[in-house]
Every structure is written in C-alpha cells, then in structure tokens.
C-alpha cells in the first residue's frame, strides 16, 4: 500500500481543491472569484494525475512480480539461492523507505485531509489587527457622485477613501450603510472592518471605520452598520484615519460568501 502514497496524496490535494472551488463557495475565503476556473482545472488535473500514478504503480508492481518468478526459475544453484537471500536481507535493511519514499511522507496527507474535511475560515480580526493601518498614497481630489437615496451602501474601502481624501466631502449629510466584521482596540474602541485583497488572502490589507454611538458586538461578529459620517481631521491627514461613523443602528448579519473586498 505504501507504494501508492504519491498517488493518494495527489488525489487528496485535487479533491480538496475541488471541494472548495467546484462544489462550494469556500474558495472565496482565499482568492478572488475570477480564479475559480483555474482552481477547478487544477483540482481535476491533480485527481487525474493521481489516478495515472496509481495505474502506473500497479502495472510496475505486476511486472516486478513476474520478474521475481522468472528469477526463481533461473536460480537452480543452491549457493546462488543463498546469495539471493542475503541480497534480499540487505535490501530490506538498507532501503527501508522503498521506492515510494519514507513512511513519514504519509504525514503530507494530513494537510490535504484537513483542507478536504475542515477548510480553514476566512481571515478575521487577528489579521486585521496585524495590519498597521497602511494605506496607499493617494492625493486629495474629487470623487464621482454618490447614488441618490439613503441609505447608500458603500464598501469599507470606498467609505475610507471618500472620508479621508474627497475634497467635495460627498459623504456629508448622507446616511451610509457598511458591512464588515467587528474588531476592537484595548481601550474599547470598536470598528467595522473588512479585508481588501488584490489576488488572494495572502496580500490582504485592512479597511475599517470606527463606530460610535452603539455597543460593540463580540469580536469577529459580522454586522451591518447604518449611520452618518463624522468628519475628523484635515483631508489626507493621519487624524482623518480611521474614518468615524455615528451609528443609528447595528444589525448582526451572516458572513457573506465572499468575505473580502477587492482592492
């Protein structure tokens, strides 16, 4: 069975990829939606490659068996038999790992099984707190007009950009609605937060807004905050970040299928 280790590992990794991409929306925890076809193709190819490796391994095993039978028929001499036995013993002691690799290699199946059975959650408050509020350098300027009607739904990224850099102050007097997960500072200040990704979770950065006028839900709870923007600091200054929203209501919601915003 050990000789089938590489085939099993390939098939497990492929099945895990298909599990999160082809048969669920879990891949959105890790990558952008546009990468789904690549994940599906990769999963299918890995499963097929595992099947091919298993077939080749089985064929090679049968050939080795036939070769051993031929060798037994050719070995007529008693001393040759003894020599063959000694060689077999040397082989079993000197090459314990065999052609399929060391037994410890089977441990590589554990991460694949974990992804297949227990996909890790999306990044949350811990990752957001590790982000040192780094922001792309942007100049102060005008933004496109907001849609008419209140409340207006904004991403955390767009709300932060307008609050900090919009010279027209387009957020003033508008009721806005933001959705994200809860993070908190040690002093009790809390934020509605979202992680922004360009490609995948590995390049995530943080967008957040400080919420005032409402009690903080538990950390990592997903909420929709409806309220108004409170201007803080001069445009483009550190004092303007993070932007502040005076909450009229805070409603707990389910985590969206895609927990990230596109950067």
Automatic annotation (TrEMBL):
Biased composition (Basic and acidic residues): 89-98
UniProt xrefs under InterPro entries: DUF1980, DUF1980_C, UPF0703_membrane_permease
Keyword set, alphabetical order: Membrane, Transmembrane, Transmembrane helix
Domain (DUF1980): residue spans on this chain: 164-260
One protein family per Pfam: DUF1980_C
Region (Disordered): 65-98
Residue ranges of the TM segments: 38-56
Comp. bias regions, Acidic residues: 69-88
Domain of life the protein comes from: Bacteria
Transmembrane helix as UniProt keyword: yes
Protein name as annotated: TIGR03943 family protein
Provenance organism: Streptomyces olindensis
Native organism taxonomy: Bacteria, Bacillati, Actinomycetota, Actinomycetes, Kitasatosporales
């Amino acid at each position: 069975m050990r000789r089938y280790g590489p085939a099993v590992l390939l098939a497990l990794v492929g099945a895990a990829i298909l599990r999160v991409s082809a048969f669920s929306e879990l891949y959105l925890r890790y990558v952008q939606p546009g990468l789904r076809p690549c994940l599906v193709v990769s999963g299918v190819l890995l499963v097929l490659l595992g099947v091919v490796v298993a077939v080749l391994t089985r064929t090679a095993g049968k050939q080795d068996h036939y070769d051993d039978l031929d060798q037994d028929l050719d070995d007529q001499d008693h001393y040759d038999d003894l020599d063959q036995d000694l060689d077999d013993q040397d082989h079993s002691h000197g090459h314990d790992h065999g052609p399929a690799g060391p037994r410890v290699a089977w441990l590589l199946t554990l991460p694949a099984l974990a992804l297949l059975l227990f996909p890790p959650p999306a990044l949350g408050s811990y990752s957001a707190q590790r982000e040192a509020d780094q922001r792309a350098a942007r100049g102060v300027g005008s933004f496109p007009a907001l849609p008419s009607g209140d409340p207006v739904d904004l991403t955390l990224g767009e709300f932060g950009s307008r609050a900090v850099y919009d010279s027209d102050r387009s957020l003033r007097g508008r009721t806005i609605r933001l959705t994200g997960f809860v993070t908190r500072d040690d002093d009790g200040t809390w934020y509605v937060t979202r992680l922004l990704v360009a490609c995948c979770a590995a390049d995530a950065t943080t967008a957040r807004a400080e919420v005032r006028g409402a009690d903080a839900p538990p950390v990592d709870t997903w909420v929709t905050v409806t309220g108004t923007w409170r201007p803080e600091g001069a445009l483009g200054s550190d004092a303007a970040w993070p932007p502040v929203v005076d909450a009229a209501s805070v409603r707990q919601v389910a985590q969206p299928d895609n927990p990230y915003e596109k950067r």
